[in-house]
Amino acid sequence: MRGALILDFDGTLCVGDAPVREYARHAFTNVPDGAARLSRLDDFLAHGAGLDAARDGYQAVAALAREAEVPRAALQEAFQRSRADIASWIGEVRAPEGMRELLAELDHVSRILITNSPAGGLDQVIEGLGLSDVLDQVVTDARKPEGMSAALDRAGVLASGHALASLGDIWENDHAEIQARGGVTFLIDRHRRGDGAPTRRAATAEELYPAIRDWADALSM
Questions:
Q1: What is the extent of the structural domain holding 76?
Q2: Calpha distance 199→183 (Å, rounded)
Q3: 3-34: pLDDT as tens digits
């Protein structure tokens, strides 16, 4: 049985907070207390504290921007500018240790990246992470969580039940739809918030590798 492993990007395949900080820098450039908001973001990234509704750095930036009444259009522009300025942060991100080797082993599984990131520059980042040849498909601008079902359809994912699995760091975005389809969910819970009801959870992707291998091996039996 050929399965499908749905992968998130930021915080999952791409580890490091430099892209988030670049996004925040653009978002708060014209905000009077921008420096204080950047400091609060750093606290959140370090400890997961202070912005209870946020589940990752991007949601934290959005929450801080709402507090400062940054227009939504300006926030979207800040995100696009941060992605266009890849050279400023690409050297400060990495794939989780052993991720390339893990995905290479799973060549009997469809390895599909579904991300909210825009397409522009993403290939460059994926190549820099050394993952270009271990991904079968890349779906961008997914608009998760609402767009996850449509993104799976765009990728032609027919797997369901045990043949379908997900690896990501936000329960609602990366796993809720997979669970609804009866799939197996591997949640990276960086700040140990206890969200959702994943099949397996751990603070890092690396801790989930044995469970992912067990899932993939079972598909070959």
A1: 18-91
A2: 9
A3: 999 999 999 999 999 999 999 999 999 899 99
Element (H or E) spanning 187, and its range? strand 184-188
The number of helices, as runs of H, and strands, as runs of E, in the chain is: 9, 6
DSSP E strands: which ranges in 80-158? 110-114, 137-139
Tokens linked to 33? 């207390």
Roughly what angle, to the nearest 10 degrees, separates helices 18-27 and 57-67? Answer: 10
Side-chain-side CA neighbours of 73 within 13 Å: the count stands at 0
d(CA 171, CA 137): 22
**Do 99 and 182 belong together in one domain?**
yes
Tokens of 60: 């934290």
What pTM did the predictor assign? Answer: 0.93
- Whether 105 and 183 map to the same domain: the answer is yes
DSSP tag of 146: T
CATH for 125:
3.40.50.1000
